[in-house]
Fold:
Amino acid sequence: MNRRFPKLFLIGLCFLFPTLLLAQKTTTNLKEEGQIQTFLKVTEQIRCICLPSLPIQSCSFNMCAASSYLKTFIENRIKDGMKEEEIISKMENGFGNSVLQDPIVVMFQENGNQGMVDSIVYGFGPKILAQPDGTWINFTLFALGVFGLFGIYKYGTKKSRGAVVTDQKTKSDDLKATTDQIKDKIRKLEEES
Structure:
C-alpha cells in the first residue's frame, strides 16, 4: 500500500506538470524581438474584455473576439513605434481621433460596435488594467489536482483491499466447509455406534 502512493503521485504529476510547462499564453504577428517583448508586456497588463479575471494575453479568439481584435490593435500601435507605458496609458485614457483610420477601429465601426470605438478613442478607464488575482485560480487548480490524486490513491487501495476481503471470505468459507465435514464425520460415527 505504501509503495503505490509514490507511483500514483508520480503518474499524477506526469499528467499535470507538462500542461503547465507547455501552456502558451498568446500569439503575435510581430517579428522583431523587441516588439514581441513589448507586446507581451502590454497584453499582460491589459484586461480581457470578455473574461475580466484574465489578462488579454490569455484570451483566445474562441473565447473573446473583441480581445483578439484589441491584440491586433495593440500590435498596430507597436508597429507605429509606441512604447509599452504609452500604450497602456492610452488604453486607459484614450488614443484620441488619430486612431480612427486604424483597420481594427474601422472594422468596429463597420460592424456597428460604436462602444468599442468610443472606448479606444476616449479610453477604457482604469478597469482595463489587468489586476487578476491568480490566488483563487491557482488554489482551485491545486485543490482539484490533490483531490484527483487522492481519488486515484483511494481507487488503487480499494482494489487491493477488495482482494484481501475476497481472500478472507474464501478462508472463512473453507473453514466452514471443513467444520461441516467434521460434523458429518461425527454424525456418521454416532450413527454406526
